[in-house]
Design brief:
1 helix, YceD family protein, mainly beta
Amino acid sequence: MIGVPRDTDVELDIRLEAVMEGVLVTGTARAPLRGECARCLEEIVSDTEVSFQELFFYSAEDAAEDDSLLDGELLDLEPAFRDAVVLTLPLSPVCSEDCSGLCSECGIRLADAEPDHGHEVVDARWAKLQGLVPEHNNDQES
């Protein structure tokens, strides 16, 4: 429902340290977020800033199966950044904390609806009986 748009520029502030096993990367990343409100489906645009730390090993012998490896002199920071961002994203993003959502009957956004917006709800089990009883007029006596 919300995430970093594809091909978006990400601002990185990183520190590279040589350690015995490889290169330790510590940093922060800032990126825009786009998505939709879980209640009213309106577009949400915001930013996120995450911190991450990843050790890139020099050789496969030193690394476990899921550890990051140096590719020559290249570091692929995308998996570390993606993991850090995913942990900060809300499961149900909302445009505002007091978002009313959508009308369950007609789908109109409740924030845009009239104050007296509502629908007459007829129980489906009794709907066929609705036409059997004549309307009573207040001027007539029973």
